Amino acid sequence: MPQTLTEKILSRASGKSVAPGDVVEVKVDIAAFHDLTGYHVIEVMEKAGMLKVFDKQKIVIAFDHLAPPPDVRSAEIQTQIRKFVKELKIPNFHDINVGILHQILLEKYANPGYVIVAADSHTTTSGAVGAFAQGLGASDVAAAVITGKTWVMVPQPFKIMLEGKPGKWINGKDVALKILGDFKADYFNGMSIEIFVREPSAFPMDFRATVSNMGIEMNADALMFVPDDETVNYIKTNRGYEPNTVRPDEGAKYVDEYTIDLGKLEPLVAAPHSVDNVKTVNEVEGLDVDQVFIGSCTNGRISDFEIAAKILKGKRVKSRCIAIPASYDLFKKAMELGYIETLVNAGCIVTYGTCGPCLGGHFGVAGPGETIVSTSSRNFKGRMGSNDSKVYLAGPAVAAASALEGKITDPRRFS
Ligand SMILES: CC(C)[C@H](C(=O)O)[C@@H](O)C(=O)O
Ligand code: SF4
């Protein structure tokens, strides 16, 4: 029987041929956690009396939510995790100066065909390279860390085809929001989305990462880009080796199919307070904006900063603007390319590698009555701070254009 990517990966990982609906035990290739959930993962391991890991090389830990620690409790949590790392001699530990877990997984560890579990919902991000990547609760991750195994119900595979080339200011976010607007946030429950890109180079890894990242906002069990030349090039360029790839078989069966013509997309936003309250930028243009956030594991990559820098070059922002590349490596690259200088000269506050304001933690929490335009993943009530603030999710072009004008702005004005 021809197999989908989902079936192929889960068949390999479980050691038997699987079909949608099967509940199987699978071997994990990577189990990961960050500071905020790591605390609970370790607590579960301690309570179970099993403070051990199945394979040191396959555990990845990063400090991002509480990086650098905004309060004493956060500092304590990080100290405790550092102790765990030292005692168990975990090599793949990334302290506060490296980046957001999902970006680190993408840059350094995720490979096509891998099964990745991490104690964070946006683990789906690694689907950008064709990994079956799922966020799990702390107890399930603790079990995977100890045993190297987890269980899954094999999801129903859904096929999405991306055709054509995106226009100048269109980015992965517009594709994610298009899917969310057309299907609504709970549609893909129990499904895995497999995305085929007709012209691989037209939809680069940064864009793919944004869409995979928001797979969890679509409630999908996984969102994977079918590995192609772009996947191989990305891994080769970043890590110096050519990965093994895995692709669905010809004739594999999907529950449904849907095609997006990238050339026809326009800049989209998700208006408060849900990710599927999707509108075109023109429908909300002109609304006053207090703060703009360009960053997060959703849209804090080089192409996001490139787009923002193009719009902000030689100008000055009218609203507050906080910009955070998702990792130290991305920050350095953005610095070399002059994007950081451009953003700083435009009046943005720039740092790197923290979740910061994305979940209202620190580094620019939204105040009562404020309107935020954010390139991050969620706009639920109170997500970025006050319950009385409003968050509009958008790609970097809408975010930068809005910062510049101090109100929601169509970036196509800057063409
Ligand atoms: C704190 C963490 C558990 C959470 C998640 O799982 O996604 C956070 O990263 C988020 O984006 O809301
Ligand atoms: S950047 Fe935001 S979405 Fe990503 S892991 Fe951090 S809090 Fe979650």
From TrEMBL:
The reaction(s) catalysed by this protein are: (2R,3S)-3-isopropylmalate = (2S)-2-isopropylmalate
Q: What is the lineage of its organism?
A: Archaea, Thermoproteota, Thermoprotei, Sulfolobales, Sulfolobaceae
Pathway as given in its UniProt record: Amino-acid biosynthesis; L-leucine biosynthesis; L-leucine from 3-methyl-2-oxobutanoate: step 2/4
The UniProt entry's GO biological process terms, in alphabetical order, are: L-leucine biosynthetic process
**What is this protein's record name?**
3-isopropylmalate dehydratase large subunit
- GO terms for molecular function, please? 3-isopropylmalate dehydratase activity; 4 iron, 4 sulfur cluster binding; metal ion binding
Q: What family does this chain come from, according to its entry?
A: Belongs to the aconitase/IPM isomerase family. LeuC type 2 subfamily.
For activity, the cofactor(s) needed are: [4Fe-4S] cluster
Could you tell me which InterPro entries the record lists for this protein? Acnase/IPM_dHydase_lsu_aba_1/3, Acoase/IPM_deHydtase_lsu_aba, Aconitase_4Fe-4S_BS, Aconitase_4Fe-4S_dom, HAcnase/IPMdehydase_lsu_prok, Homoacnase/IPMdehydase_lsu, IPM_dehydratase_rel_enz, IPMI_cat
Write out the function statement from the record.
Catalyzes the isomerization between 2-isopropylmalate and 3-isopropylmalate, via the formation of 2-isopropylmaleate.
| Cofactor: binding details | Binds 1 [4Fe-4S] cluster per subunit.
Q: Where would I find the Aconitase/3-isopropylmalate dehydratase large subunit alpha/beta/alpha domain in this sequence?
A: 21-406
EC number(s) per entry? 4.2.1.33
- Binding of [4Fe-4S] cluster occurs at 297, 355, 358
Q: Quote the CDD domains the UniProt record gives.
A: IPMI (cd01583)
Q: How does it assemble?
A: Heterodimer of LeuC and LeuD.
SUPFAM superfamilies referenced in this protein's UniProt entry, alphabetically: Aconitase iron-sulfur domain
